[in-house]
Write a structure and sequence with these properties.
Helix content: 10-25%
Bound molecules: zinc ion
CATH superfamily: Ribonuclease Z/Hydroxyacylglutathione hydrolase-like
Shape: globular
Strand content: 25-35%
Structural class: alpha/beta
Length: about 270
């Protein structure tokens, strides 16, 4: 398994990639080439080129959820690919329009067009992408501290309604050392996501997690998430994107975490 960070909020000193408050990761596993989220602008294309990654060769395009910081970049990839050879995997709600007040925060119209061209799998169920890689599907609520709160509204059957971002999902990879989980924003709760990954893979050992953990404020949810993560004894925690400095600082009082930036690669057999 090899993960390369194509887009993150952070960039590393002396490495001249572009950053933006968005997510895009490139994952190679079992001869599959997976693009997980596409960021907000076209910078993932630029960064991929500098990293010698040919996105025209991807076999899978997976979306963590429909928010524009994860999907909007897709409009710039459109012309590069023979879409009939690409499998697009996401929760069905990922295609719904989303807004906060008057601001549009959902996927670009191009995503629906691509879903028509690609071999598209829109599913709430777990979906096997490769022998050792599974899309987690809709995340079940498994604890009492990661309550879903609506983020704006989504347009369902012509009606705008509270958006609890049920489309928020993640990937899990099996490695020799344990499970490695790749998340987008973790609106569904990072602990819920990890539990679901363990459940689906029937394995308890988690070796690593990368992604936004959606921990911005210092509150009870953060406290409980940190004590839960501490119990899990995960050696490679990469909280990024939507994790505040204050949340990271609080984590560091309990366990080690690693820094994420564009160009970071993580390899595990
Ligand atoms: Zn989001
Ligand atoms: Zn996000």
């Amino acid at each position: 398994m090899k993960i390369t960070v194509l887009v993150d909020n952070n960039t590393f000193i002396d490495k001249y990639y572009y950053g933006e408050p968005a997510v895009s990761y490139y994952l190679e596993i079992d001869n599959k080439k997976i693009l997980f989220d596409a960021g907000y602008s076209d910078i993932f294309l630029n960064n991929a080129e500098k990293l010698n990654i040919d996105l025209a060769e991807i076999t899978h395009l997976v979306f963590s959820h429909g928010h524009n910081d994860h999907t909007n970049g897709i409009k710039y990839l459109d012309k590069m690919l023979s879409w009939q050879f690409v499998k697009l995997v996401a929760h069905p709600d990922c295609l719904l329009q989303k807004r906060v007040g008057k601001e549009y925060i959902g996927p670009p119209p191009e995503l629906k067009l691509l879903a028509g061209k690609a071999a598209t799998v829109l599913t709430k169920k777990p979906y096997i992408i490769a022998e050792n890689c599974v899309f987690l599907g809709e995340i079940a609520d498994r604890n009492d501290f990661e309550n879903r709160v609506p983020i704006g509204e989504q347009l369902r059957d012509g009606v705008w309604q509270d958006d609890f971002v049920l489309d928020d999902s993640a990937l899990v990879c099996r490695t020799n050392e344990g499970l490695f989980i790749i998340s987008g924003c973790s609106h569904s709760g990072i602990c819920n996501i990890i539990e679901q990954a363990k459940n689906i893979m029937n394995e308890d050992k988690v070796v690593g997690v990368i992604g936004g953990f959606h921990l911005l404020e210092q509150n009870v949810r953060l406290d409980k998430t940190i004590s839960w993560l501490k119990q899990q004894q995960i050696n490679n925690l990469y909280p990024c994107h939507c994790v505040s400095l204050a949340a990271k600082a609080q984590m560091l009082t309990q366990f080690a975490i690693k820094e994420v930036g564009v160009g970071l690669t993580i390899k595990m057999d």
